Amino acid sequence: MRTATYFFIFLNLSLAMFEEPAVYPLPFLVTSVLEVLCLLVFLGRLAHFATVTLHSVFWKDTKNICIMVAILLSLTDLAIYGVLRVYGVRSIRWSRIVRPIFLINFAESRQIRRAFRSIRNTLPEITYVFLLFMFSLLMFSLMALKLFGERNLRTAEGLPYFRNYLEIVFDLYVLVTTANSPDVMMPAFDFSSWYALFFIAFVIVNTYIFMSLFLAVVYNNYKKHLKVMLGG
């Protein structure tokens, strides 16, 4: 029963790869039949659990309520999406976001719930580090606006460079991951090579210092909460 439950949970989560917009598209009828099959298995698993559990215990368990609500939402969304598709109306399968609920809330997923609770308990304790990081990002963005905003610089595509504060925040946020490095600094570097110091300082402070601190806080607190839950 546990293997079958995990198989259909995996199948249900994998449907996102084949539903529109899809990596490997399959006909809507195929994906919808597979999803209904998965939901029926989940409903049968829930009904089986209800037959071996006291009704008072079953209906007080929020995990069972979450599974039933997720099944209802998924079926409702599938029906609405199918009707709109028949009439040629484009819509979105919004119920995909509830599919991980099946992975977390079944009785066999005790270890996953334990890890999930550890992550949830860790979040409040990393808030201060995250706020410090956001403050640093906003301050560097403000400095970038003052440094480059009045110099009429343009990107390689001919677009204005660092003149909109929110766009600067986004570009520097991406720079934390180094995904747009060194492209993001080239217009400033072409104007004056000394401007590279700004981006070097930004990367040192936010990528190396803050990200390392963030990772250390997350790891230590997660390990602490998991140890408490395991009774260590």
What does this structure look like?
This protein has 232 residues and is mainly alpha-helical. It has two domains: 1-107; 120-231, Helix Hairpins. The protein has nine helices and no strands. It has helices spanning 2-14, 28-51, 55-60, 62-86, 100-105, 110-148, 165-176, 186-191, 196-229. Helix 6 (110-148) runs antiparallel to helix 9. The radius of gyration is 25 Å and the shape is flat. The two termini are 31 Å apart. The relative contact order is 0.08. The mean pLDDT is 87. It is a multi-pass membrane protein. It comes from Manacus vitellinus (golden-collared manakin). It is found in: Membrane. GO terms for molecular function: monoatomic ion channel activity. Its main location: membrane.
Total helical elements:
9
Strand % is: under 5%
The main β sheet shows up as: none
Which CATH class of the largest domain applies here?
Mainly Alpha
What is the overall pLDDT average?
87
How far do the termini sit from each other? 31 Å
Write the CATH architecture name of the largest domain.
Answer: Orthogonal Bundle
Number of strands: 0
What is CATH's topology name of the largest domain? Helix Hairpins
Approximate shape:
flat
Return Rg in Å: 25 Å
Question: Which structural class do you get from the secondary structure elements?
Answer: mainly alpha
**Structural domains: how many:** 2
Low-confidence stretches: none
Element-level helix/strand string: HHHHHHHHH
Share of helical residues = over 70%
